Amino acid sequence: MCTLEKRGDLFFLTLTGVGPSDEHRLSPAVIESILSALSDAAAQFTPGCALITTSQGKFFSNGFDLGWAQSAGSVREAEDRLHGMVHSFCPVVAAFLSLPMPTIAAVQGHAAAAGMMLALCHDYMLLRSDRGVLYMPEVDIGLTLPDYFSALGRAKIGSVSALQELFLHGAKVGGEEAVKLGVAWSAHKGEEALMEASINLGEKLAKRKRDGEVFAEIRKSLYPELCAVLGLTHKAIATPKL
């Protein structure tokens, strides 16, 4: 599940679990919890806010809850459960694109499959250099990508070689390599340094006190293909400060 806490100008969305080994799998309940937290953050928005997403324990998120899907009574039911999670996660991506504030993913552990997609939803991704790992295992386990996964990857990863490395080679990419590939903003040694850098960035962004609606519309305009896949539209807003 997750919690949402506001400290000063920063919202902290934290993936929580039962212990340090919790993988923060994106089950239907966890997906709904994240959606609810994003809705609450948007409702509480005032100019001068930013949101940081992080997690407890070893993992950021290891993707969809495949164990729950496979525990169904039949292959057909397992496929239906997986397709249901894929479908229900789509609004999470849309919600991040529409959020009226800057967003930062503080990836302090493994972010795999849909967990990596969750990190990519953010405006900025910071990783631990000593633990953070990005991994798209679909090519290794025999799963194709949902259309919006592919569109999100193309939207947020500008280098063809980086896309190939992550999606076609299934490489496990650490923090410093993710920065070199242009996937991550920065990498930091240890959880404390990661959170300090994330908070500093969040506070710097919050100080700009941007118009939230304008910020969200500009963000959406940067990713027209992804917005089309998600069914999002964006509009022109003219309230210049001259």
From TrEMBL:
PANTHER family according to UniProt: ENOYL-COA HYDRATASE-RELATED (PTHR11941), ENOYL-COA HYDRATASE_ISOMERASE FAMILY PROTEIN (PTHR11941:SF75)
Catalysed reaction, written as an equation: a (3Z)-enoyl-CoA = a 4-saturated (2E)-enoyl-CoA; a (3E)-enoyl-CoA = a 4-saturated (2E)-enoyl-CoA
InterPro entries, per database record: ClpP/crotonase-like_dom_sf, Enoyl-CoA_hydra/iso
Name assigned to this protein: Delta(3)-Delta(2)-enoyl-CoA isomerase
Broad EC category: isomerase
Gene3D superfamilies, A to Z: 2-enoyl-CoA Hydratase, Chain A, domain 1 (3.90.226.10)
Gene Ontology MF terms: delta(3)-delta(2)-enoyl-CoA isomerase activity
UniProt keyword Lipid metabolism, yes or no: yes
Coiled coil: none
A cellular component annotation (GO) from this entry: peroxisome
Pathway: Lipid metabolism; fatty acid beta-oxidation
CDD domains given in the database record: crotonase-like
Gene Ontology BP annotations: fatty acid beta-oxidation
